[in-house]
Amino acid sequence: MDQAIEIKKLRKEYRGFALDNVTFDVPQGFIMGLIGPNGAGKTTIIKLVMNLIRRDGGEVRVFGLDNLRCEPEVKSRVGFVYDIPRFPEDLRLRTIASAISAFYDKWNDNRFRDLLDDFRLAPSQVFKKLSHGMKMKFSLAVALAHDADLILMDEPTAGLDPVFRFELLTKLRALIQDERKTVLFSSHITSDLERVADFITFIHKGRIIFSAAKDEILETWGVVRTAADGLRPQDVPGARGSRRTEHSLEVLTSDLAAAKGRLGDRTVCDKASLEDIMFFISKGNAHA
Amino acid sequence: MRKILRMEYLFSRRQILIVLAIFTAYFAYMAYRIDSPRVFVIMTSIMLGLSMPFISLGREDKFKTAGLVCSLPVRRSTVVLGKYVASWTATVFGLGYALLFTAVFPLSKFSASEILSARTLLVSLFLISLIFSVILPFTLRFGLTGVIILLVGLQLLGVVAFALAQFAGRARNPMRIVVRAIEGGLRVLLHHKLTPGFLLALLAAFVALNAVSILVGRALYLRREL
Fold this sequence. Notes:
The structure holds 2 protein chains of 2 kinds.
Chain A: E1 3-14, E2 17-27, E3 31-35, H1 42-49, E4 57-62, E5 65-66, H2 71-76, E6 78-81, H3 93-101, H4 109-118, H5 132-144, E7 150-154, H6 162-179, E8 182-187, H7 190-196, E9 199-204, E10 207-213, H8 214-220, E11 222-227, E12 239-244, E13 248-253, H9 256-263, E14 268-271, H10 274-282, E15 285-286
Helix pairs in contact in A: 4-5
Chain B: H1 2-33, H2 37-63, H3 66-71, H4 76-104, H5 112-115, H6 118-142, H7 144-167, H8 174-191, H9 196-222
Helix pairs in contact in B: 1-2, 1-4, 2-4, 2-6, 4-6, 4-9, 6-7, 6-9
């Protein structure tokens, strides 16, 4: 499988936080969701891919090109959407687009206008008068108007109402199906990722917990529930996290089939949702 | 770089025109009150040098669009070069407007030939270069906060120099030395005979100042995290 992004041993240190030898690939033509709690390092990874912050070590290749040495070539193939769109607030959409379009050889004005129509935006609208959702849509229209092969989005659905989120995700899904683009987007809204992502990379405290196909994760990970005194977390095969209440014990496992096989009727075993996984790893008692 | 220039123009053109319209009152007042065309040109250059670049850089700070510029397919070194050229273009445009306005302003005390001399123009460019070389690298790296830190730092330096001056005698007063140096420099700029050698030296200093400033600005901007 060709890779759109290859990240190897990426490091970035801040006071009190370090991105620790992060390694994962984003396959070409798929949607990958970068998931993790707030402060896990999702934005840091995306900014490092875009060279908006300086890396302390490691390597990032986009379509086989080093993202620092071939910065203009790489960025010309990337459509980038910030979590909070950053455009001059007092300008009209057409003026902003006109300034940005000059940077892209493949900018397509007709496509941009179609996207604005699609998002029910008018070129004469002033940016600051748009709602947050509309600003995100404009940002997406700019990212898509130059026929980018890779769309990078940092928390694009944060702060959007469910209707806007659904629209945005539907658009992303259509993009992949129709044009075989690659999308990497970070989010802590797990339901969004379950709806559209093909692959999931989970990051916690600057470390990759897993990076795999979504279906495989949802098939193999599970939550084992039992009475509080019936089991110890380490008795569950593939235990990755646990939560104990007064009357019950819940254990997150990355090997649901083995857990079912060994524990049988003594427990209730369910498939884990991404939200379960995020909760147990970030808030429960995490196990190696 | 042309693309950066175009972007700066599209993003800030209205504000530049508004500021120049406001400055017109100042130009008129100065042309009416000041007798020396050189003083007028120097004051105007300093004022424009201190204000024109910050129209676009201030807007970039306000709307946090540095992240947008750096996400575009262009190297940061090109962005820095583009911002210097944009600052120069806006300032020279402003200066041209000021000189033209003063030349045709009916109540002006000086004629066009007095203002538009090679010396006054070269001195103007040199002074603007001095201002840019100190302030632009800080602004590119730290935004307008950087300029404020720089100005506060310079004020603190002034306080230290003033305190030192109280202890040192009149002859060894460091402030006196600095003021004398600036005065001497300006005198040379304004009164030295306009020989080809002098013009060449001025041009070389102008180029060197800008080149060093751009290199420092570039090195600082590469470290900026957005």
